[in-house]
Amino acid sequence: MGLVKEAAGATEEKAPLWTRDFIFLALSNLILFAGFQMLMPTLPKYVGFLGGAESVVGLTTGIFTISAVLVRPWVGLELDRRGRRGIYLIGLAVFVISVLLYSLAPSILALLIFRLLHGFGWGASTTSAGTIVADILPPQRRAEGMGYYGLSANLAMAVAPTLGLYLADTFNFRVVFFASAALALLATFTASRIHIPSLVKHQEELRPALFEPRAFRPSLVAFFMTLTYGGVVTFLPGYADSLGIAHAGLFFSVYAVTLMVIRPVAGIVADRRGPDIVLIPGLILITVTMVLMSASKNMAMLLAVAFLYGLAFGSAHPTLQAMTVDGVAPNRRGAANSTFFSAFDLGIGVGASVLGVISQFAGYRMMYLAAAGFSLAGLLFYLLSNRRSRST
Fold this sequence. Notes:
Helix content: over 70%
Strand content: under 5%
Distance between the termini: 26 Å
Largest sheet: none
CATH class of the largest domain: Mainly Alpha
Number of strands: 0
Radius of gyration: 20 Å
Number of helices: 13
Order of helices and strands: HHHHHHHHHHHHH
CATH architecture of the largest domain: Up-down Bundle
């Protein structure tokens, strides 16, 4: 029911994965994330250039996350009501416009307003893309496809931040913003070449909604998981400095490479043998890595943690994303994806905020032990919900 071409060959042993549309969507995602990741290390420097204090740097991140979270449920609803293409392209266009406006910001207040707009564009475009990829992937290879699709963002993470810093240091911030907007514009053009299946409404289908109840379980697990990520990505540089460890950026390089290797492998295993065999060890490993992080004393230990964390996160994330849309009617997939991405964003934002308070009063080591508790809570919730679903 629902989408034209929906699972036409769903019963085939090896349904095609690398279709023209999947390749174009992954390519568009790679280009968009490259434009986005270029801004991650350069925007804090731009805030300083405009005269903003350190607290404003956190505010620019917070307001972006809040706007993305607020817009996602409404985007999901409209994706299920009106279809995918228009909202996807509008979100990309808003991304382009907002980044161009950064170069014109006369003050911190103006930058925050443009950052709010950017969050809307980001929330709309990524929710749309996540829904479209769920539409075009064969159901029996969905976790595998999600793993490959996520590689596009990981590749951008490995290259684009360094490129953004190089452009800012060699030229100026305006060149960075123009380059980011140009990449987003190229992503928009690539996205326009995708043949997106049209929604076909049937009377037996559920009405579109802001949230999809079937998505709550994997989304809540993702929330607990990304609470830890908020602590890692925000406080690792400061933690490394406190330990006297230089070149902490190597942590993220090892993490990104491990993600790229494990994601498709974990997806294949999850498709063939079910999510538990991938997700439960992944959540256990995240808990273990946070404990090891709290005990780290040198670069070798940090890099070992980076490898294990990438292994765990890369296994769990595509599996949860596939679980989010499995069994969901096509005209509720927008709501399902918005629920998942909102939980993901909230996890990072809440994790950074709560763990930041813990680090201030108890130190980094206790902070990472607390992060281990968050991951353990996600594991316990998943196991208890598994037992409940099997008993009903």
